[in-house]
Design a protein that fits this description.
Length: 229
């Protein structure tokens, strides 16, 4: 009787462990399949022998239709050499490697991905994580375009400021000197109103010279903006 109870107890424990294991496996499969990162397993020759839903979505085909396909067929020609070097380094160094390649995407524009790869524990295949960085690269491209536009605008502003602060200052300096000379030479022949006009004109031209010098300030602001970016 005691032996039967013991067997029943052990059987119950084994069933519970089996159920717990099944739950854990299902949880792992869910985490693997529905992860936002693509996971890919390649054979030594480069065939796809395992991948999650995210990876299949990146490649633009159903998972079942991707099995046994060569992953390199989805890599654009300009990225193939980087990809082959990536696999070679994983195999030769046994150290985690990184690579950035462009993939064909059926019916859509190519996508740029970041690959993180290492050898499997048994050493028979490659385990690779795939991260879609297309949006980040697009943002970097837009930022570079903005910087180029800022550089062009800055050059145009520098050219204008040079003309304004150098070429235009000379005529202003000549007019100011002439007005001052006129005031001195004909001091006794001019009435108070004429002297007042000459004084106002001189002050006006001096103010213009200060304004022209201040036009160089926007250039400093643009340079500061570029350095902060």
């Amino acid at each position: 009787m005691k032996k039967q109870i013991k067997n029943l107890t052990e059987g119950k424990i084994l069933r519970q462990k089996a159920e717990d294991l099944e739950v854990a496996v299902e949880k792992y499969i869910d985490l693997y399949d529905f992860a936002s990162t693509g996971y890919l397993t390649l054979a030594r020759e480069g065939q796809i022998i395992g991948l999650n839903l995210c990876a299949s979505k990146m490649l633009g085909k159903e998972r079942s239709r991707l099995m046994k396909n060569m992953f390199s067929t989805f890599v654009t020609n300009d990225s193939k050499q980087k990809f082959y070097h990536f696999l070679k380094e994983i195999f030769n160094t046994q150290v985690e490697q990184y690579c950035e390649v462009t993939l064909f995407h059926k019916g859509k524009l190519p996508i740029i991905v970041y690959l993180i790869g290492h050898n499997s524990k048994d050493g028979l295949h490659y385990d690779i994580s795939i991260i879609d960085i297309t949006e980040r690269k697009d943002a970097e491209r837009k930022m570079n375009d903005l910087l180029n536009k800022v550089t062009i605008s800055n050059k145009e502003l520098e050219d204008f400021a040079y003309v304004a602060s150098h070429d235009l200052q000379e005529p202003l300096r000549m007019v100011t000197s002439f007005m001052q000379l006129l005031s001195i030479k004909y001091k006794d022949n001019l009435d108070d109103i004429a002297h007042e006009y000459i004084h106002l004109d001189t002050q006006f031209f001096c103010g213009d010279k200060i304004l022209l010098r201040s036009m160089e300030c926007p250039i400093m602001a643009v340079n500061s903006f570029k350095s902060n970016i």
